[in-house]
Write a structure and sequence with these properties.
heterodimer; A: 743 residues; Aldehyde Oxidoreductase, domain 4; disordered N terminus; B: 150 residues; alpha+beta; Ubiquitin-like (UB roll); 5-stranded mixed sheet; 5 helices; 14% strand; binds FE2/S2 (inorganic) cluster
């Protein structure tokens, strides 16, 4: 990673448009200053003679604080005074590397890159100062936007050096030096999130806040069943609604749907309300689709039946079938339903197509994918598409799929005016890229004490790959690596299989993805085994994880992608796994005496290169489950911004409460049953009453992911606690569908 | 003709059934008040009408004749209402989208009950969804200004 960008520093950045405060009225393609006096040593960084240091945030802000945290890493290595830093949001542009803010990888993928940007600029500033003072550059250090000569105490501000530094040749990678951990000023401590002031005063600019002259607001009627086309609709009636301007169609997608606009009928109006009212008058008649018969209740039975049959082997260690002979066995099946993203800000995008060029503003997790989707939809080169990234009112994976951006672009091209496409909550819920419904079957052969000698599991769910290719029924290697083929248990015989499952709705990734179903099943099942053996779950789990080791998954029969990270740098480390487990247990005062009706449950899971354990204490009153205590321990390696890590952990637990207690989407005759928060509820303040206690484990390991890994262990920890309280085992989600009052 | 005061400005309009939410956002270009559900279910669009928290997606403009509306943009001149300060102090926001509505619900609560119990906080805030899950910090921020609101 430690390579210096070959970006030509005379070719100054032209990153204009969105700042994250204040409204944007109109757009100037050349708004960026490109004064020759600026010092632009790296694509991520420009220093002005005025003293302002522009740092480009190339990842999308959806609540993790990444817009603050990555620039903070640059500033630390540079030795910048944080008050001098001006953060600018980058447009979608491959020169920044991946901008796909997804997979909890912004920090681990870009930590070294950001330090390199800061160190490169710092190296040149040191050289410029040293030349002035006629001293050795290595005797200079940097602090508070000054270069300081250690021996003499001489100081000079960066801004004085900008002109000279800009003329120096870029350093080679091996010439760069980096701060030692104890010299760091911001990394590991954190800075206040730069967008807070705007967020609490209504000034922050989210997707729907773009206002362009002459802009129309659009809502689109899309087929309730994937793949159906309209037969007929009333083109005139919407026009009678005051404010409606026109009704146009968007051509249905060509399979596979991927990130294309779904297609449908758009009502465009002077304001959103008229567009919504106009759409109600369309009276659309829809044709048939191959998915007309999709019924998610029937599909559940189908998936559970598939999970009973042999599937494709994705990991085999030892000889499961031989080993299981003669052993006492225990088996169980688990089920998780389709889940919804439901970001508070529904999808929305604004596009302005003019003279073969398209400029869009969107709350997107992946501006480069949006750029490509728009280019493909409009049949123009990607170079003619500019994607400005606004703040995201939540993403959770939904907003890395730019179908809604393509819609805005297509409509703007069609009507020759800027268009903002607004998705209502109903649109969001009914046309989501749903988290996969899933069934799992687990079986263990047990030794005399009740510990597993042999472990098998089969997972069956429609794959995300079905979104990108027709006819896919098998999960991808990537999905198998999400808490399934990487089972970290010290069991001599392990067999992991995947069964076929066709998709009947759009399938997409949701915060922590297939880890949701895998962690739920695995960590519930291990709790079942502990109960069967009559052993305390914590002790049992420690023993099943086994001795300290870095698991060689290849030798254990798995082709494990490890989230795209090298296993040498990010091994599957059982010592770290047990450490967080025992930390959470200690925080929870595990094993203490509890009143009748209360219980504790625990689960530990590694995902996105981080290790997280959660202990939950519940009180069950009739059908009511009250979460009394949550203790979470995380080892994410170096904690770059501890406060934002805690905040992500708290949010992950609440996300876990939503999905475990009440989350689901169902389909009948191919169409989604739910429509808004009344029938697709998410956790409210009354569902998350208890304080969530987060312990950050001190770690020397390189940084791992944070946005997603807090989610998977919550549901099994909660269900294990319910078992401890009631003796009832919850093997399907959501919990609210179980009557826990009758034991 | 409907006359109402919005963030200290007198506004006259002949819009009738347009919900206040869209009137603010699309007619007045005041986009600080946000859309989350359009059905009174999420609280994202909360504003104060004569100091009571209401869901602006549910109030047609004509129903507000003579009323005083405060949006998150008009709550304080410099974003320094005690609750806005507490929200930053306690690092409440994640994505930030729901937070304007959350703050205004909290303002209405403290106006009527300067020292709310946990239960009173629950009752006042249960209509405001935060999908990012910032509830614990919202509760802490409200408690930190108990009795300290204007
Ligand atoms: S948008 Fe008004 S309550 Fe949800
Ligand atoms: S902070 Fe994101 S919805 Fe509340």
């Amino acid at each position: 990673m430690n390579t210096v960008s070959s970006f030509n520093r005379r070719d100054f950045l032209r990153l204009s448009g969105v700042t994250c405060s204040g409204l944007i009225l109109g757009f100037s393609a050349e708004a960026e200053t490109s004064s020759p006096e600026n010092f632009n040593p790296d694509v991520f960084l420009t220093l002005e003679p005025s003293g302002t240091i522009h740092i480009y945030a190339h990842r999308s802000e959806m609540g993790t604080g990444i817009r603050t945290v990555l620039p903070m890493v640059v500033a630390d290595e540079l030795g910048a005074d944080w008050d001098d830093v001006d953060i600018r949001q980058a447009t979608g542009d491959k020169k920044f590397g991946s901008q796909n803010t997804d997979g909890s990888r912004s920090i681990w993928k870009f930590f070294d890159r950001m330090r390199t940007a800061g160190a490169t600029a710092g190296f040149l500033l040191n050289q410029a100062a040293a030349a002035r003072w006629n001293v050795d550059p290595s005797t200079c250090r940097r602090d508070a936007s000054h270069v300081i000569h250690k021996a003499s105490g001489k100081r000079i501000a960066f801004k004085e050096l900008v002109g000279e530094a800009a003329k120096l040749p870029l350093p080679k990678a091996d010439e760069l030096t980096f701060k030692a951990p104890e010299e760091r000023t911001y990394i590991g401590k954190g800075k206040k999130v730069v967008d807070f002031a705007d967020m609490v005063s209504g000034k922050a600019v989210f997707g729907a806040d773009i206002r362009l002259p002459n802009m129309l607001f659009a809502v689109v009627e899309r087929s309730p069943v994937l793949g159906a086309k309209w037969k007929d609709f009333d083109k005139e009636a919407p026009l009678k609604v005051k404010g409606v301007n026109q009704v146009v169609t968007i051509t249905p997608y060509k399979a596979p749907h991927a990130f294309q606009a779904l297609g449908g009928i758009a009502v465009l109006a002077d304001h959103t309300h008229a567009a919504i009212k106009g759409r109600e008058k369309l009276n659309t008649q829809w044709g048939t689709s191959e998915h007309d018969h999709y019924d998610s209740d029937a599909y559940r039975d189908e998936l559970l039946a598939t999970a009973e049959k042999e599937g494709t082997v994705v990991r085999h260690k030892g000889d499961y079938k031989e080993a299981i002979k003669g052993l006492t066995t225990h088996s169980a099946s688990y089920y998780t339903p389709h889940l919804l993203h439901q970001p508070m800000e529904p999808p929305v995008a604004t596009a302005d197509f003019k003279d073969g060029r398209c400029i869009v503003w969107a709350p997107t997790q992946n501006p480069q994918a949006a750029q490509d989707a728009v280019a493909a939809a409009l049949e123009i080169p990607a170079s003619q598409v500019t994607v400005h990234v606004t703040l995201l009112g939540g993403g959770f994976g939904r907003k890395s799929k730019p179908d809604y951006v393509a819609e805005a672009a297509l409509l703007s091209q069609k009507v020759g005016r800027p268009v903002q496409v607004v998705w209502t909550r109903e649109d969001d819920i009914q046309h989501d890229y749903f988290h996969s419904v899933a069934a799992l079957k687990l079986e263990a052969g047990l030794d005399k004490k009740g510990y597993p000698e042999a472990w098998s599991m089969r997972t069956v769910f429609p794959s995300i790959s079905s979104t990108f290719a027709e006819g896919v029924v098998q999960a991808s290697a990537g999905e198998m690596g999400l808490g399934f083929s990487d089972l970290p248990f010290d069991v001599p015989h392990i067999l992991c299989e995947n069964g076929p499952a066709p998709a009947h709705v759009r399938i997409g990734w949701l915060r922590s993805v297939a880890n949701i179903q895998h962690a739920f099943a695995i960590h519930s099942f291990v709790d079942e085994l502990a109960a069967k053996a009559g052993i305390d779950p914590l002790a049992y789990l420690n023993r099943v994880i086994g001795r300290d080791r870095k698991i060689d998954l290849k030798a254990e029969g798995a082709d494990y992608p490890n989230y795209g990270a090298p296993l040498e740098k990010y091994p599957v480390d059982t010592a770290r796994l047990k450490h967080v487990l025992n930390t959470a247990a200690k925080d929870a005062d595990w094993g203490r005496q509890l009143p009748v009706g209360q219980g504790q449950g625990i689960a530990v899971h590694r995902s996105f290169l981080s290790y997280i354990a959660i202990a939950v204490r519940v009180r069950v009153l009739g059908r009511k489950v009250v979460i009394e205590q949550v203790d979470l321990a995380i080892d994410c390696g170096l904690a770059v911004h501890p406060e934002r890590i805690r905040s992500q952990m708290e949010g992950s637990v609440v996300f876990g409460i939503s999905l475990a207690m009440m989350g689901k989407a169902t389909m009948k005759n191919g169409a989604v049953d739910q429509s808004n928060f009344h029938d697709a509820p998410v956790a409210r303040i009354t569902d998350a009453k208890t304080k969530i206690n987060v312990t950050l484990v001190q770690s020397e390991a390189p940084p791992g992911g944070v946005g997603e890994p807090g989610v998977p262990p919550f549901a099994p920890a909660l269900c294990n606690a319910i078992f401890a309280a009631t003796g009832k085992r919850v093997r399907s989600l959501p919990i609210k569908e179980h009557d826990l009052s009758e034991a | 003709m409907t006359t109402l005061t919005i963030d200290g400005h007198v506004v006259e309009t002949d819009e009738k059934d347009m919900p206040l939410l869209w009137f603010l956002r699309d007619k007045l270009q005041k986009t600080g008040t946000r859309f989350g559900c359009g059905k009174g279910l999420c609280g994202t669009c909360t504003v104060l009408v004569d100091n009571h928290a209401v869901r602006s997606c549910q109030f047609p403009v004509f129903a507000l004749d003579g009323k005083k509306v405060t949006t998150i943009e008009g709550l304080s001149e410099h974003g320094d209402h005690p609750l806005q300060k507490a929200w930053q102090e306690k690092n409440v926001p994640q994505c930030g989208y729901c937070q304007g509505g959350q703050i205004l619900s909290a303002v209405a609560l403290l106006n009527s009950d300067p020292n709310p119990t946990d239960e009173a906080i629950d009752n006042a805030m249960v209509g405001n969804i935060c999908r990012c899950g910032t509830y614990g910090r919202i509760r802490e921020a409200i408690k930190s200004v108990q009795g300290g609101s204007q």
